[in-house]
Amino acid sequence: MALSKQTEEERASWWLFLKANPIGVDPNIINPDVMSDLPENVRQTLWAETTSSLIYLLGDENGLSEDQISDIARTIREIALGNITSGNLTQELKNKLGTTDAIAQNIASKLTKELIAPNYFQISQLYEKKHRVGAVPTKTSAPRQPLAGRPLESLEQKRATIEATAVPGKPTTSMGDWAGDLEPEDQSTQIVANKPSRNVVDLRKSPEPLPSKLPPTPPVVSRPE
Fold this sequence. Notes:
Elements: H1 8-20, H2 32-37, H3 40-47, H4 49-61, H5 66-80, H6 89-97, H7 101-116, H8 120-131, H9 155-165, H10 187-194
Helix pairs in contact: 1-4, 4-5, 4-7, 5-6, 6-7
């Protein structure tokens, strides 16, 4: 369509695309293969006329020039392609536009809400894929070294050590004897422990024989009539 035959609305739309659209500001700068590999929602956001309108209105509200408006569109394109992280949007705008912190923060806040947040998952994946964010190199663990110290004692050596260091009147066994290396009890202690109490019947003794002579039968007393 010849430029002279375009309506005012069509000319405005075309101008908006060339000045404020993330794709239109730099025609043919993006490889077609890169565009085709983008997620569908991200690709539509970049091409959308609503995206161009938003960028232009933000620039116009903050008194920016046409070149500065185009720089906003370029910044959004770089974030959508995964070249820069969306977390640096405010700083990127401040550096490219040469504006104050307040203006850069205001523009970044509205762009994030309208363009980045709805596509955040796909955009963050593109950035992580390009920059390998979160990739932790595998680390080979070194072989464990043997514990330093004196060699383990045998049971006989341990028994001799316990007997040599035993304190009279103090049990020689400890929690370290869990493996079965226990100190035998004194024989006198065993005898006392096995001696039955005076009030306890010792079942280990054989029962005494019954007396051979039974006691006399008690007389039968008749009841009076």
